[in-house]
Amino acid sequence: MDLSPFSQINPPQRLLMGPGPINAYPRVLRAMSSQLLGQYDPAMTGYMNEVMALYRQVFCTKNQWTMLVNGTSRAGIEAILVSAIKPGDKVLVPVFGRFGHLLCEIAHRCRAEVHTIEVPWGEVFSADQIEDAIRRIKPRLLLTVQGDTSTTMLQPLHELGDICRRYGVLFYTDATASLGGNPLEVDAWGLDAVSAGMQKCLGGPSGTSPVTLSPEMEAVIRRRKRVEQGIRTVDHAEGDDEMIYSNYFDLGMVMDYWGPERLNHHTEATSALFGARESAQIILQEGLEAGIARHRLHGDAMLKGIQAMGLQVFGDIRHKMNNVLGVMIPDQINGDQVRARMLNDFGIEIGTSFGPLHGKVWRIGTMGYNARKQSVLQTLTALEAVLNSLRFSTPRGAAIQTVLDHYLADDNHA
Ligand SMILES: *Cc1c(COP(=O)(O)O)cnc(C)c1O
After folding, report:
1. Cα(160)–Cα(142) distance, rounded to whole angstroms?
2. Sign of torsion, CA 97 100 106 108?
3. Residue 158 in 3-state DSSP?
4. How many Cβ atoms sit within 10 Å of the Cβ of residue 310?
5. CA distance 79 to 72
6. In this structure, what DSSP letter does residue 60 have?
7. Alpha carbon 116 to its chain's center
8. How far apart are the CA of 28 and the centre of ligand 1, in A?
9. Which amino acid residue places its CA nearest to atom 8 of ligand 1?
10. Tens-place pLDDT, residues 218-232
11. Binning pLDDT at 50, 70 and 90, where does residue 167 land?
C-alpha cells in the first residue's frame, strides 16, 4: 500500500454485509464521478426535476414535494421534524428500537411534548395498540420508524394512515432502512411525510435523504413563520413558536429552492444528486416489486443458511425486514473476534448491535447491490469457516447446500 502523504485514496476491498452502509451499485459510483454543473444551469435544474419525478415513483406517491435533503438520513428526519413540530405540540412515538429513541430525542429538541409507547426489542406494535395510544394522548403527530435496523423488525404501517385521518393526526415514518427492499406505499397508506437515505436498499453512499411531503404537511410547513430575506436584526419575541428554528432544515425554504421559484438556499450537493438519481433509475428499471422480491429471496436465503448452520435468529421473524437479519451469537463465542476474523481474513463486514443487544447479536444485511447470491454464499462460507476454527461445530456444508437448494427452487419457479 502506498502510504506517502500525497498518495491517492485506495480503500481496501470489502464486502459490506452489515446493516448499512453497503457497497454502492457501480453505476451509482460512476454517475457520481461526473463533472459538476452550476446550480441554476438548466441542465442542473432539469436533473433536479427528474429526481423529483423518480422519487415520486420510488415512494409510490403523487406528492409534488418529493425532493432531497442534503445530509445523511438523519438530516431528512430532522428537517421534517423541525419543520413540522411547534413547541408544545404533542407527538406520539411507538418505540421498538434505537431509531424510535432518535425520533424522541429530536422531537424533544423541537420542544414537543413527547409521548412514547414501547414493546420489547424484537417485536412490533399492532394497529390497535397504536390507535389506543392515539385516543388516549391525542397527539398532533405520529412519528414512526418503518424498519428499525437496530432490531431488524419492520413495523406494519398500512392500517395507520386511516387511524391518523380519523383522529386528525399527521403521520410520519423513517423509511431509511426499509425503502426499496420492503413495500412502502406513501399515498395508499396515508403518510404525510417520509424520509429515507441512500446507504441501505437504495445502494448508494450516505449523504442525501429523499423526502416526500403530503399537501397537508406542505400546508403545515408553509404556515410557519420565516424571517424576511435581507433583515439583519430580527425582532422576535421569546417563545415565538411559529418560527422554524433552523434555516438549513426549513423545508419551506427547501421547497422554494426545488420549486419553480428557485429561490437561493443551499448549493445542492451535485455529485450526491447524480448518485441519488442513478439509484432511483436502477430501482425503477428493475421494477419496485421485482426489487422487493429480490430482497426477500436473498434475505430468506441468508435466514435459511444461518438456521442450517445451527444458529438462532433474533426477534419475531414474521415481522423481520427482508434486508437484515439478527443472528444470536453463540454463548461460547466472542462476537467481536468473529467480526474481526471475517474482516481481516475474508474482507467481509458484518454488523454488531447496540443497547440491549450489544455483544449478543450480529446483524447481517442483504441489501441493494449486495442482495445477490454471491454475497450471501460468500458470507455464509466465511462465517462457517471462522466459527469452525473457533471450535464451534456446524453441520458441515449444510448451510451452503440449503441455500443452493433455496436458489434452485426459486429458479424452478421462474
Ligand atoms: C440506518 C438508519 C438510519 C441512518 O441514519 P444516517 O443519518 O444516514 O446515519 C436512520 N434511520 C434508520 C431507521 C436506519 O436504519
Report:
1. 9
2. negative
3. coil
4. 15
5. 11
6. T
7. 21
8. 20
9. 73
10. 999 999 977 665 544
11. very high
Q: How far is the CA of 209 from the centre of ligand 1 (A)?
A: 10
Q: Which regions of 245-350 does DSSP assign to beta strands (E)?
A: 324-328, 348-349
DSSP secondary structure string, 341-361?
HHHHHH-EE-B---GGGTTTE
**192 Cβ inside 6 Å of ligand 1:** no
| Helix (H) or strand (E) segment spanning residue 160 | helix 160-167
Is pLDDT at 326 greater than 90 in this prediction? yes
Q: Is 299 exposed, middle or buried (0-12, 13-18, 19+ CB in 10 A)?
A: buried
Q: Which of these ranges, 284-288, 340-344, 352-356, 381-385, has the smallest mean pLDDT?
A: 352-356
- The answer to whether residue 365 scores a pLDDT higher than 80 is yes
Of 224-233, 336-345, 350-359, least confident by mean pLDDT is 224-233
Alpha-carbon distances, residue 261 vs 55, 208, 250 (angstroms): 20, 22, 16
Q: Tell me what the pLDDT averaged over the chain comes to.
A: 95
**Ligand 1 site, residue 99, Cβ cutoff 6 A:** yes
337 CB burial (10 A radius; 0-12, 13-18, 19+): exposed
In this structure, what C-alpha cell is assigned to residue 257?
429552492
Query: In what helix (H) or strand (E) does residue 66 lie, and over which residues does it extend?
Result: strand 65-70
How high is the pLDDT of residue 232?
A: 46
Measured CA to CA in angstroms, residue 81 lies from 89, 157, 269 at distances of: 11, 19, 22
CA distance 330 to 311: 7
Q: Name the residue of 98, 103, 176 to mutate for ligand 1: max ligand atoms within 8 A of Cβ.
A: 176
**From the CB of 274, is ligand 1 less than 6 Å away?**
no
Residue 213: how many CB atoms within 10 A of its CB?
Answer: 30
Choose the weakest-confidence range: 18-22, 105-109, 209-213, 235-239. Answer: 235-239
What are the pLDDT digits (tens) for 123-157? 999 999 999 999 999 999 999 999 999 999 999 99
Asked if 351 and 363 touch (Cβ cutoff 8 Å), the reply is: yes
31 forms bridges with which residues in the sheet?
none
Beta-carbon contacts of 118 under 8 Å, excluding residues fewer than 6 positions away, are 94, 95, 96, 100
